[in-house]
Amino acid sequence: MLTAITRAVSPALADCELSFIERVPIDMERAREQHHAYENALTSLGANVISLPPEPELPDSMFVEIR
Description:
Distance between the termini: 9 Å
Number of helices: 1
Low-confidence stretches: none
Largest sheet: 3 strands, mixed
Strand content: 15-25%
Order of helices and strands: EHEE
Number of strands: 3
Shape: elongated
Structural class: alpha+beta
Radius of gyration: 13 Å
Mean pLDDT: 87
């Protein structure tokens, strides 16, 4: 069975790494909704989703591993 390890959206998401687009304000509620939809999509595809708590100091920590 495919296992997907994710992490809840970090409250520091606004400080994420950007290298190809200009920085614009991030809608945190929308980011949480999108991440939840991502987890639901993985589940609907048969993945076992393990969701870890957010890492407040790691803005890019939402996408951990799929194997």
